[in-house]
Amino acid sequence: MDLSFRKMKTIPKIITYFITASIALVVIACTPDPLPVKNIPTLTPHIVVSTQTVPDQSIVVLLTKSVGALDAGKNSDLQTLLAQIVVSDALVTVEHDGELDTLTYLGNGLYGNADTPILAGHNYKLNVNSPTVGVVTSTTQAQATINFETVSATLYENEYDTLAVINYSLKDPPGKNFYMVNVQQISATETLSSLLNPRLFTHVVSDEEFNEATFQEEFKVFFQHYSVNDTVAVSLTNISEDYYNYVQKRIDNRFSVISFATEPFNYPTNVQGGYGFFNMQQPDVRLFVLK
Q1: 95, 169, 236, 278 from 102: Cα distances, Å
Q2: Are strands 59-65 and 47-53 parallel, antiparallel or unpaired?
Q3: Is residue 76 within 8 Å of 83, Cβ to Cβ?
Q4: Which ranges constitute the DSSP H helices of 47-108?
Q5: d(CA 257, CA 255)
Q6: DSSP letter at 17?
Q7: pTM above 0.85, yes or no
Q8: Which of 72, 192, 218, 229 is 20 to 30 A from 36 via CA?
Q9: 158-206, pLDDT tens digit by residue?
């Protein structure tokens, strides 16, 4: 059942539906256990940038501090760890087309703005100044929005598990293009424990073998358990090659002991002075109730 995505007018709703997984992946996804060693100097933390945008042209930037393997583990207290890594004192701005937009602090390391226009081909510069962690900048170019031609989400049951199956198609425009499909289970209420339970599945594809053609594929969402009447958001985003390489690296390291936010940070980045990735790209988002 396609519920279709309706424009959201307030930042809190954006957080509820689309920032959950970002917090989860940064905070706890693969944080290694503390190592039983002594006399190792504490690493200087760096700012880690993650960005989310939604079809109503709202932008949310998540800022956290990189965490050393000696500082946190799977048995760490979640509230304490969250308090340790979020960056809450930053001045965050986005420059574009001669304008300077200041993002509002929303709590839990999230900074948002609902009025920044996201225009394909335009350049955007992120500036972050935190008195306690430091300064980072990043520049990106917005990609054109590509919508689903068709999309569906259904349940697949076998004797071992119940998975979601995504079937979609898109019309590939001229040029070299890269796509990201995200699948995220949606809950009506979010608590701290659910925020720290990763429920985002990411699938990426390049148009190397289907340039300027209609592309269709089906894939199963693994590492999740779904039930009848669960609601999921399925999104399609046209992304840059650099961001594709960044996301692909994270997918390849899905089971690595190195966390997204943990030193040593070995992912590609477009953030000067920090880690992570800043992007301005609009997804096509559809909501489904699984049957």
Answers
A1: 9, 37, 27, 16
A2: antiparallel
A3: no
A4: 78-85
A5: 7
A6: I
A7: no
A8: 192
A9: 877 889 999 999 999 999 999 999 998 887 554 433 333 446 789 999 9
What does the pLDDT look like over 6-54, one tens digit per residue? 444 444 454 444 454 444 444 444 344 444 545 555 568 899 998 888 7
Closest Cα to residue 286, out of 195, 190, 167, 172? 167
Q: How far is CA 215 from CA 108, 233, 277, 281, 283, in A?
A: 39, 21, 27, 20, 17
Burial of 231 (0-12, 13-18, 19+ CB in 10 A): middle
Closest among 275, 277, 287 to 245, alpha carbons compared: 277
Query: For residues 283 and 280, what is the distance between their CA atoms, to the nearest angstrom?
Result: 10
User: 180: which 2 tokens?
Assistant: 């990201």
Please name which of 244, 238, 240, 233 lies closest in space to residue 282, comparing C-alpha atoms.
238
Tell the burial category of 147 from Cβ atoms under 10 Å away from its Cβ (0-12, 13-18, 19+).
Answer: middle
Sign of the alpha-carbon torsion through 145, 188, 6, 230: positive
Rg (CA), the chain: 19
CB 280 within 8 A of CB 118: yes
User: What is the Cα–Cα distance from 247 to 202, expressed in whole angstroms?
Assistant: 8
DSSP state of 219: E
Q: What is the DSSP letter of 179?
A: E
Distances in Å between the alpha carbon of 100 and those of 63, 97, 103, 113, 287? Answer: 19, 9, 10, 12, 33
Under 8 Å between Cβ of 286 and 151: yes
